[in-house]
Amino acid sequence: MAMSTKLSSFRLPPLPTIGEIIKLYNLRAEKQLSQNFLLDMRLTDKIVRQAGSLRNAHVCEVGPGPGGLTRSILNAGAADLLVVEKDTRFIPGLKLLSEAAPGRVRIVHGDILTYRMDQGFPSHIAKTWVDGPPDLHVIGNLPFSVSTPLIIKWLESMANRSGPFVFGRTRLTLTFQKEVAERLTASTGSRQRSRLSIMAQYLCTVKNCFTIPGRAFVPKPDVDVGVVHFTPLARPQIQQPFKLVEKLVRNVFQFRRKRCCRGIEMLFPATGRLEMTEELLCRADVDPTLRPAELTIPHFRALADAYSQLCAENQGLIAYDFREELKEKRRGRRHHGGGEVPQHRGL
Ligand code: SAM
Fold this sequence. Notes:
Elements: H1 2-10, H2 18-24, E1 37-38, H3 41-50, E2 58-62, H4 68-75, E3 80-85, H5 91-100, E4 105-109, E5 136-140, H6 144-160, E6 171-177, H7 178-185, H8 195-201, E7 204-212, E8 217-218, E9 225-232, H9 242-253, H10 260-265, H11 273-284, H12 297-313, H13 322-335
Parallel strand pairs: 2-3, 2-5, 3-4, 5-6
Antiparallel strand pairs: 1-8, 6-9, 7-9
Helix pairs in contact: 3-4, 7-8, 9-12, 11-12
The structure holds S-adenosylmethionine.
């Protein structure tokens, strides 16, 4: 009995529906800002359930808009909900919600790409990295143009334990265009296996929870939407700096239909390129004929470790970018009137 009284105290009092809020505050979706709203509370409740128990939790909701998902988060029992919204038009509606849940909602008018989430929550909620995740969740239904750069930024923050991850292994529940959700979770050998699969999976357990058809949104986007849940791993599967891993993975996948050695070659200056590639593959014990999508995370770990060793042995290698070398060659050709191409200095 006491339990049910407690549960009901989390629930919001009767409020205008999200549809009514949109009309009341004249919140027409801005196509330029890719605003697509979720008005069906069964769907917003389902997204929120993917995060796990929110009872008494701290939550950051990114892009609350008219507040559908926000209501579900509050109804799930979040004690401290920080919402970060870029578009001022939504602030009055969010204030109404905050009055209905006294002391539980904090509103930030700002851009999540620059917002300092490390300063948004009290330090006492932090857990060490090897402990379980903290009682802090990040949840959001953002425009696709924001969610992809944001997850790339947050994967780097995860590796460096900054931003939302100064509090420990903070869990994320975010929406993406369906194809991006599939790439984030693609397994070895699958058609969707890409840079994003490796970068996400070496750092986290990633789960593609479910797909929301485009028609569930108002207005309807041209694509379907995937809900993805991320839990940072206590020990990342690759123990090298994020930038090094990112460079390796970017190079490997630039020729995705070719053998993996083709992309790996581009990590090295033209002088000695083939020998260095052979040396790297040999040290990592990776079959050069495998296609990029066939490489497992342990393959990437071995490649990253071997590449890091080679960088330690060859000054300047980590900074080498084949595109710069190409530019230099082109400049040389122009300077010499199409004659001999100047030799690269090597490492
Ligand atoms: N969460 C609401 C829902 O599910 O109905 C709104 C979703 S709408 C796709 C995305 C929301 O994110 C909009 O309210 C938009 O103004 C907001 N937004 C877009 N870019 C943002 C950014 N960089 N920082 C914070 N909010 C942003």
